[in-house]
Amino acid sequence: MSTINDSTDTAVRPAQQAAVDTPTSIGESTVQDIPEGHLPPGIRPAPGARGPRRIWTGEEQAAQENAEDPTRPVEIVEHAGGQTTGAAASWPSRRTVRRRARQGGAVYKLQTRDGRRTQRRVMGIDVARGVALFGMVAIHTLPAWSEAAQGPTVTWTLFAGHSAALFAVLAGLSLALLTGGRRVQTGRRGLRSRVGLVLRAVLLLVAGLALNLMWFPAYNILPYYGLLFLLAVPLTLMRAGGLIVSAVVLLVGSPFLTYLVVRSTGAESVINPSLVDLFADPLGVTVSLLLTGSYPAVTWMAFICLGMALGRLPLHRERVQIGLLISGAVLAVSAYAASALLIFRLGGMQEIVSRTPGATPSSVEDVMIFGPEPTLPTTTLWWLAIDGPHTNTPFAVALSGGIALAALGTLLLVSRLAGRWLRPVAAVGSMTLTFYTAHLVFLSWVDVEATPWFWFGIQMAVAIIAAMAWQRASGRGPLERLLSLLCAAPARLIVPRSQAEAARADDVGSPPGQSDQHTAAQHRS
């Protein structure tokens, strides 16, 4: 596209590259290339051909950051406030401005290791992590039974089993983002990311087992997380379709596998296995972590696969977020209704009571509300039709998975409209490992049973204040940063960058014609 001033003989056309201002004579007129967005007053466009412009979306820079630190949880949002390269990037288009307005606080920045606030994170995902953490703290701190209502409390009904499932789905989502997001990483970069994940899994497993040396009135999920991460490494090569199929197969098949193993061997769950337990009874601890524990890895891999499938989707798109909300709600309602139909209408309750010694309808309902103690009975397959917390049946997994999808979709949508108001929750969600560990240590020292709401409020207030202050001063949480450093350096040592990869990284490290500071300023959300 060319521009011409009718009152003069000077023609001005936008430059395809910045800082090209050499005049060229055309007859009696003078044509001058200048950066687009800096046209002098009085110049208006005239018809003319215009070359294509390359759009910079930030993916190249984010890919380089991930290559340098493959264990860092950076969420990439395509075209979220993206800018054009070169001189054409000086001013955003009207479409970009409208898109920013629709997004609201959907994307925010987190300080990187070099001190520049250029790492972009999806607000809704961190908010979901924060909500999952608050839910787990509520389950561990607040009472499960209401004397006034003579039934389970609202917090127990909302969060028991479901907050941990949301945690697991988001963990799978992070695994997908760490290995390329929508585009599966391959080659040396992908291998380096997967080596970092193996190291992360081992460190989480060991740290979780070491943390269990203390006593606290809660089920520690960290050892299971380490094992889940380790089992998920081969699945990081799969795309969304294959991951969804894997999640369905695990949802249906793994509870039956656990049922058969427990029934044939009599294996029992080891509550919060520690390093001492691992050395004293390695087989029992392994079976507990894989099959019979509170968060059995074989069954909970369904949540990991579901989250990894979500990480391969464009979660920044509104229609995808609405789809998550609707599909999650349909899945949760269907699982709940099917379980109730089987138990209360098709004879499930009678079969369980008649085949289980000492069972009564009241005790079966208690298992459906509060979960088994500690493992689900194996007297009949009808036990697999219930959907209580930590029962790990197909219906329980489907119910919690549907709630996790609906919650994530809802929080992604809400973050588009009220992202600024959710920054405190997102700050906590960006460092859940730190605060979850601190929560368990707190429970080991403080008896919260006497005044549960007081101690719940104290934990929430301290978490929010500390998260906001730490994020503003340093970025990622202390344990998150330590874990990344412990994994990234060995991963780079084991799989070093090739010369071609290093050269390519230098070429795409920042958009052409812009400094890093300019890039950060243009991508404020």
UniProtKB/TrEMBL annotation:
Spans traversing the lipid bilayer: 122-142, 154-177, 197-215, 221-238, 243-262, 282-310, 322-344, 395-414, 426-446, 452-470
Residue ranges occupied by any Heparan-alpha-glucosaminide N-acetyltransferase catalytic domain in the UniProt entry: 121-324
Pfam families, A to Z: HGSNAT_cat
Keywords: Membrane, Transmembrane, Transmembrane helix
Species name: Nesterenkonia aerolata
Polar residues: bias regions: 1-10, 22-32, 512-525
Claim: Membrane is one of the keywords in the record: yes
Record-given protein name: Heparan-alpha-glucosaminide N-acetyltransferase domain-containing protein
Lineage summary: Bacteria, Bacillati, Actinomycetota, Actinomycetes, Micrococcales
Span list, region Disordered: 1-53, 502-525
